[in-house]
Amino acid sequence: MIADGGATKTEWCILSATGNKRIKTQGISPYFLNSVQIAELIRSELLPALQQQLNISYIYYYGTGCTAPQTTKVIADALEDLFPGARIEVSYDLVGAAHALCGNKEGIVCILGTGSSSGYYNGKAIEKNIPGLGYVLGDEGSGAYLGKMFAAQYLYDKIDSGLKISFEQEFDLTPDTLLYKIYSGTFVNTLFASFSYFLSRNREHPEVNRILKKGICDFFAIHLSEYEQRYRVPVHFTGSISWTYSDMIRQLCREYEFTCVKIIKEPMDDLLDYYLGLYSLNA
């Protein structure tokens, strides 16, 4: 079983001799959920869709937030509780993105989804990583970052009345209720990221377009400019924001003189190819 665990959703794929099965559950983040809560989520959303969950031999889990031993353990403990006979490997989502986008070749890998991160992959491992830092301190270019930028402009009353009314009607918000949601909620990153869908539908609006360009430019300036390999190796992107604004990203790559090769929405298809290739080699 391979898992791509994001903050907004998690995709699972079971590989077997009789075929592959793919299932989506809600997002899993070890920053917001403990092992018991994650196990309960998997038990209620994943296990009912599996008929032979006890026969799973290997689990490769790539997830947001799985960069430190303590957060990796949160995920591993939940999986071990539910799949006691499986060999379990937990790593962070950037490694999964590297396997999907680069295979066994070097490149710079970027994730722009609910959060953001980047790394230089030498063909075997992530050699250098510019961390995303989460929506409070960073995540430049991510859905949460773009949504937070727009929320600030809305709360400062710096967007025109038509855009303001559309936003308030779609999300049933006022400035007071939005502030309450931000400072009393526990999944504020996904709240901000949900605003990014509104932005994508209104991207031709000058104020929205300015926010989008600024947010994605911040990712290039803070992340990609730090890799000394950026002119020598290809740059790849995955994630919903990467896919939605692929035209902006390719244009910025041309301006920065980077070679942008792949932009994919989700890594699972390419991860399957990666693992099927490994198993065929080891067969």
Commentary on this structure:
With about 280 residues, this protein is α/β, with parallel strands linked by helices. The protein has helices at about 35-45, 70-80, 95-100, 135, 145-155, 160-170, 175-185, 190-200, 205-220, 240-245, 245-255, 270-280; strands spanning about 1-5, 10-15, 20-25, 60-65, 85-90, 105-110, 115-120, 125-130, 235-240, 260-265. Helix content is about 50%, strand content about 20%. A hairpin with a 4-residue loop joins strand 7 (about 115-120) and strand 8 (about 125-130). The chain has a 5-stranded mixed beta sheet with strand order 3-2-1-4-5, sandwiched between helices. The two termini are about 20 Å apart. Among the domains are: about 1-95 and about 270-280, Nucleotidyltransferase, domain 5, CATH 3.30.420.40; about 135-215, Transcription Termination Factor Rho, Rna-binding Domain, Chain A, Domain 1, CATH 1.10.720.
Question: How would you summarize this macromolecular structure in one to three sentences?
Answer:
The protein has 283 residues and is an alpha/beta fold. It has helices at residues 35-45, 69-82, 93-102, 134-137, 143-155, 161-171, 175-184, 188-201, 206-222, 240-244, 246-256, 268-282; strands at residues 2-5, 9-16, 19-26, 58-63, 87-92, 107-112, 116-121, 126-130, 235-238, 260-264. Among the domains are: 2-96 and 268-282, 2-Layer Sandwich (Nucleotidyltransferase, domain 5); 136-213, Orthogonal Bundle (Transcription Termination Factor Rho, Rna-binding Domain, Chain A, Domain 1).
